[in-house]
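Input.
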Amino acid sequence: MKKFVVFGLILVILFSVGCFGPIDPKPNPPVPDENNSIIPDDPELPVQDGLSFETAIIIESEISEEGIGMEYDWVEFNACKNENGPQSVEMQELQSENDSWFDLLHVRCHNNDLIVYYFQIDSFFGKWE
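Output.
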């Protein structure tokens, strides 16, 4: 009898492990090309390289703490691609343009270049937890 109970438990565990995977896996984020531009799948969409108000990276979040963290994550993984990556964020400034709010992060690259990246933050601006 013990053998059947143990065997049954093993089957239940194996079945459970095999059935549960990610519920809603997030797609891989777009990877910038050699010019540090994120090329959209749809050629009619604008390129979002974050180098101007028009091509700002749009951050979607419900609260400021998370949104700001997402900006810094983007910088860590995407900024200064042609300059051996980011070294530090030198300054963060807030600007309004065309009824939208933007964070501008001044990023120092490892080759000592300073690049300003624009993030559109309307979804979370002023929403603190």
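Residues 46-129 form one domain.
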